[in-house]
Design brief:
By secondary structure, the chain is mostly helical. The chain has 4 helices and no strands. Helix 1 (2-18) crosses helix 3 (34-85). The N and C termini lie far apart (38 Å).
């Protein structure tokens, strides 16, 4: 259950990061339109909310919310490091290969 909550929080922050113009352009080579950005943000908030019950199921009502907040921080940190430290050319090369 903890792993599922971590996956959901990491996914949520990845979506929030890619919903911004700078990261979307850097990773995917184009700016997101308004609908794409709004959809990504909505999906991110849904993933954050969906992670909460998994944290509660893993640790109960006493420590579940604490676990959820810890996983939020861990997911945000992982995505921050990935978006800012992994070279953008890695993502663009994969996209070019997929289009061929």
């Amino acid at each position: 259950m903890t792993a599922l909550a971590l996956i959901l929080t990491t996914l949520a922050f990845a979506l929030l990061g890619l919903a911004t113009d700078a990261h979307h352009h850097k990773r995917l080579g184009k700016r997101p339109d308004a609908v794409t950005s709004l959809t990504m943000r909505g999906a991110a908030w849904a993933a954050l909310a969906a992670a909460f019950p998994f944290a509660i199921a893993a640790q109960g009502w006493v420590f579940g919310p604490i676990l959820w907040v810890a996983l939020l921080m861990l997911g945000a940190g992982l995505v921050f490091l990935a978006l800012n430290l992994i070279p953008a050319s890695v993502g663009r090369k994969q996209i070019r290969e997929e289009r061929r």
